[in-house]
Structures
1.
Amino acid sequence: MQYLELIKNLSFVQWAFYFLSILSLFGALGTILSKNPIHSVVYLILTFFTLSGIYLLLNAQFLAAVNIIVYAGAIMVLFLFVLMFLNLKKESNELSQNSMLISAAIAGGLLGLILIVAIKKAETIRVNYNDFDAKTGMIETLGKVLFNNYMLPFELVSVLFLVAMSGAVLLAKREKGDSHF
Amino acid sequence: MDTVLIVKAIIVVAIFAISMLMALYETYAERVIAAFIQDRVGPDRAGPFGILQPLADGGKLFFKEDFIPAKADKWLFILGPAVAMSTALLSSAVIPFGDTIIVAGQKIDVQGMDVNIGILWIFGIVSLGVYGILIGGWASNNKYSLYGAIRAASQTISYELAMGISLLAIILMTGSLSVKSIVLGQHGIDWNIFYQPMGFLLFLTCSLAECNRTPFDLPESENELVAGYHTEYGSMKMGLYLFSEYVNMFISSAVLASLYLGGFNYPGMDFVYNKLVGSFGEVTGHNLATAIGTLTLFLKIFFFIFLFMWIRWTLPRFRYDQLMNVAWKWMMPVAIVNLIITAAAELSGKPLLYNWVGLAIFGAIYFGLFPIFKKKTVSAN
């Protein structure tokens, strides 16, 4: 009965949060549990979508939009694109080996332990509803912070991107003697 | 508050219904325009002038056998058209179809939602639209469908770059990502197309490519790939794919009209507004002025839809390597040059003059100096 009361008293935002959380967990589990890699990618897209929804609940609209454009819109399309070229009909049998299972269980357990400790130790800053600036996550604020306080890191990251891009072009460039098709 | 919510709900449903209705009659317009260009009669049997033709087509599609190939991935096969259709419909939410209307003393936007990332929303949804084609093409378990899907993916990603960069120039000029602010910044005849002629052409080309319209309909080119990604589809599933293309066309026409042709702005709108408010009173006059603005927007949308169809029935299809060359070697560099010119013009304080000066200088360099270098490199090889 107590739980029923709790569910009845949930606000709209809480309903949205729980719905999105359950959906994102479902997507994440589907990503690692499905045997077909294409299905994994589709589940992962669902996860990104729900994460964007959670960003929206936090009033971070720009982050939500960029998450959809960059991850769901570009990177996952490339993932899907590459996976479609590969004929991954054969199942990998790595999980049938005992040593693999044991090491995976240990690594996963340790990671889980660290996460639990980190969450326990993390300070939870309660935000005061009355004097909290609702525009914190908006793009205007973000732009001002990014181009005032973090100007140098921002520029350095863009240089890094440029280097990565030219590296990719260089790798893909046809060398002398390569076959022309 | 309640009346505001109800009016808002009515507006949202109306926008949704209008997108569907427009898509429905775009199929009819496509046939009529194709017939006109090819000197045929076109559909004239169903109703007067054949205006019931879309309903007849829809009925035919619904009653056809809904077939799923034996070796297809059943759920993804169903998901494909659903994703294509829903992403096509989502992006109309942020397009301002008019200024505000006054109901019960409150101003209400004639728009699904006015978010401050409106243009990014459209961009994100457009980039998601390719999943419908990609998933459907792969799930069909057919080589031609897969080729169509892969072509669609690479084409969309390539043209999104030039589209995004030409969009950046607009954002640079307006200083806002909200579509409403962009439209409000083009008051009267102060339209962005006069500042951004090159950006407009780039954006128009990219929207053709994103809609898979004819010079860029490589994903479904019938002489190479049977019917591309929807080879295995039949019945209303194929109907949804075809329909989503028309919805996309309507939305991109609306986006083009809002970004470059001033949306609901028209020359002499202040004069009309003052006249209407003067003769009908504050509330009715304001609402009537908004209605005229909405009508202007729809005229612009009709113009773009006609342009899209005209292009489709006039131009031949690109070859695949040409398509990629146009995107990467031609449109993207030009878009970057356009962005630089716009940035310099904005800094100069006289954007209109210096945009054209910058474009003229670029044209002189491209057509005057560039051929000289080109000849040299050719002779060196």
Note: Chain A is about 70% helix and 0% strand.
2.
Amino acid sequence: MKSLLVYLKKYRKESILAPLFKMLEATFELLVPLVMAAVIDTGIRNHDRHYVISMCLVLVLLGVVGLAASITAQYFAAKAATGFAGALRHALFDKIQSLTFSQMDTFGTDTLITRLTSDVNQVQNGVNLFLRLFLRSPFVVFGAMIMAFTVDARSAMLFVITIPILSVVIFGIMLTTMPLYKGVQANLDRIMTSTRENLTGVRVIRAFRKESDETRRFRENNRTLAASQKFVGRISGLMNPVTYVIINLSTCALIYVGAVRIDTGILKAGQVVALLNYMSQILIELIKLANLIIQMTKAAACGDRIAAVLAVQPDMENGEQKLSVVEDDGLAVAFRDVSLSYKGNAGCALEHISFEARKGQTVGIIGGTGSGKSSLVNLIPRFYDVSEGEVDVFGIDVRKLDAASLRDHVGIVLQKAELFKGSIADNLRWGNAEAQSQDFEQALETSQAKEYVDKKPGGVGYMLEQNGRNLSGGQRQRLTIARALIKKPDILILDDSASALDFATDAKLRMAIRKMSHSMTTFIVSQRAASVQYADLILVLDDGKLVGKGTHEELLRSNEVYQEIYYSQFPKEAAHA
Amino acid sequence: MRKQERNSSQKATVTRIIRYIGRYRIYLYLSLILAVVTVLLTLYIPKLTGRSVDYMIGKGKVDFYGVRGIIYKIICCAAITGAGQWLMNLCNNKMTFEVVRDIRNDAFAKIEKLPLSFIDAHPYGDIESRVIADADQFADGLLMGFTQLFSGVVTIIGTLAFMLSVNVKITLAVVVITPVSFLVAGFISKRTYSMFKKQTAIRGEQTGLINEMVEGQRVVKAYNQRAHVVANFDEINDRLTDTTLKAVFYSSITNPATRFVNSLVYTSVGIVGAFSVIGGTLTVGQLTAFLSYANQYTKPFNEISGVVTELQNAIACAARVFELIDESAQIPDAEGAAAPQTFEGHVCLDQVDFSYMKDVPLIENLSLEAKPGQKVAIVGPTGCGKTTLINLLMRFYDVCGGSISVDGTDIRMLTRDALRGGYGMVLQDTWLKSGTIRENITMGNPDVSEEEMIRVAKTCHIHSFVMKLPKGYDTLVSDNGEDFSQGQKQLLCIARVMMCHPSMLILDEATSSIDTRTELKIQDAFGRMMEGHTSFIVAHRLSTIRTADVILVMKDGHIIEQGNHRQLMEAKGFYYDLYQSQFLGQAI
């Protein structure tokens, strides 16, 4: 939480002025009982109407000045809090965009989104409240006590006793209930899960006739929830009655002491009234303070979650070499005894992989689910770092290359087709900011997307909604391929990115890419044997190991895993038909 | 007109709420009585304090006997009030949480009875938020209403009465000025409303961008677009910061402003009161009492205006929950419906018509017969009605025309439990419940023995991967099995069905996420399971269905071809084309 304070620096002036003005307001508020005491003890006693009126004018004046001070304070507090939140959001968003793939895996997108949105809001509210109240409330509490001392030291001793007792009761109850509220939240989460499951899994639950079991489970959890709510309610419900009783006991004591002091002529009636007033001000402010502390602990928890993201250091060191591609038929990509294991996973995702791909070659990668196909291609643009061995792109270890320059030469189409809000052209320009209409045409044609894009109103100007959800899965996939093609990359990677296309379109796509350029090296990852069959080199992966390497004919002749895959999709008799 | 409608529906909601409270009415009465008692005593104390001030006339003239009497009275009042307040809190808590619990139970019970057509047509999040968030908001509102609304009203009336009993003139001064604080608060909140609306809109825009760019962060990286994306973000962020400042600032004026009005009330009481004391119609003690009433009197007004908004919100939330509870349930099982334990598996569809939307016919005049033990495969392009057919077989939806029968009995004359118990179903959409793996795979047959469970798990090829997990079969499945791959989840779903020996089987793209090699391996487990059982198979991969007894080729809700693989290939029709498209890759 502390590390976030740097974002408040720009608002140092506001952060100091806001509490100061709040204190000013509180000071005026503290003067009110004294003025009233003067009205009673001087004005009324001397039957001096002018004095009464002038004192009341002083009260109004105090009110006006207090209002002005308070509004000024609110402005500074709001300015500092919202400005702080804005700066924090920017820093956090920028940080998230800089995280490496493995760091993204560790955090997960959901929690990052929560931190960027609701957590930042909580912190903003926390800062706002803090600036407004953290000086004011203690100031009023102790101010009231000090004012009481100025009225009469002996009576003020009652304040010295009452304040700690009240504090213990208020904070004690709050501290006891806070963890209990967490328990209530956990119980609520349980019935939420139960509800969601019965919606998402409605077919399975009904197919297995589990309705009554589920209802019983829900009722049980619901009862636990209600019981925990009532339990917390019982404790937190003590707060008001107990403080009320304490304050009234002190009032009684004050009355008695006051009576004695008046009898001996040390105090006047108006002064006793002022003391009584201070007593009730203290109660109100202590409760406010306790609420403030609850809010602050919540905000601090959110702040810690944000700080945790901001504190992440890049786990990949950027290289310095810029990548340049020479026109020859040398090696494009080489894996040298590469192993990869993901953070937090015990096993290896890839084990001792070695192969070489020459410029202009098409490399097919095939294997079952979880065999490591995606992991392998993700190493080429250095999305992850190898655990052992080395990946060379155009003869240079990727760890020595500047990541941006490496990725400029690599076009990768990921499994999940992600597009963004904006026109089709905007999306394609991610690949090439200067792309002209003939570039769009060409890329769309090759990716087999031209046909449907032309039919859209406005063509490439057609606006996509968030995540491109106004396109079908297959349309999205073709557009992400076009986005990669428009880059005219030296290395193109298609990571199972044609899975939503039918066999015919898939074939046309591969044919068009082949025709596109002779120097482009292409990696095709697929579960379909038909998609990789005609590649210059096929890599067969099984459980993270490279179990076969060669052309279709070679593999079909000698490789057991490849044979199994192939014949499971093309049963022998049909293939010969 | 519209307002009237809203009023009447609001009234209906309130009546419903009162009915729910009815079971706990004793607590309600108790709470109301306690509210009156505690409020009156609370108000009595300032009067007592004021009187005590009057006993302290000056040096040597203090009436200690009187003062002591008053102190005892205050202590008694405070003790009774404290106890009363706590009891009242308990009553309110009990009522609120029990009522919300009852409402949630009813809502959940309704979910279990809703027809699939309703659940499919409504976003899950919407239904869920009714049961969780709306009910919660309702509880908050109700509790606040119980604790503050009634006691607030009593406080206002009580204070007025106490003030009147002391002095009429000053009371009038207070009554006249107080509404000003209302006006001020109303004025400000009206102004700030538009700013909050604007803030919400921009925040929504930003959340949209955040969702996209955090989910698509990998793409942003792959295309070196960080600077571009951050610039877009900053543009929205600056606008948001700006409007938030305005909204936060203007709304934060409310408190100081109303406090200022309250201080005006206080001052007027001071002036009028002081003049009355000088004029001899009021004592100093009474003035003290008045000053503290003036402080108390304005507070419930501010509270009540807050409570009223909160209550209106609570009623709106309750209305949303009631809406769910009032949804019509699925048609109950027919009277005297049969409930056979097992089925032969003779399934007939006779001239079935079905559509999801009235005007858009989907399945028309579909007839088909599956003899016991037959393996029926259904293929066709997306949207042809394959999954719909399964919805009808399981009676998730009822046919619009024609009938479906199992072993000669119309399925509408069977209990749903019996019908669904007859089928084992594996869907493409792999759903796992939160719980252990064991609980998941033995869901249909909780009494299965450990040996049997492991045996089945082995045939489904899940045993070895489950054993690699830290807690084996007791590993918790969370978030619908986020930690498992799609293929592993599908295997778990297959094991779940294999565990309970159903009479008939439905497999809807049951192996779509499993790689072809593993599929081949569990094919024979499937084969053994399907032996002698009628089964319906929907599949994308044509290799999976070549061995079916009957292949139905569906298009636009009709069966356009029917026969076994060989016959259909020889016919060179739609199926032939579909089958050949797999080999297109070879042409290149």
Note: Confidence is low (pLDDT under 50) at residues 573-577 of chain A.
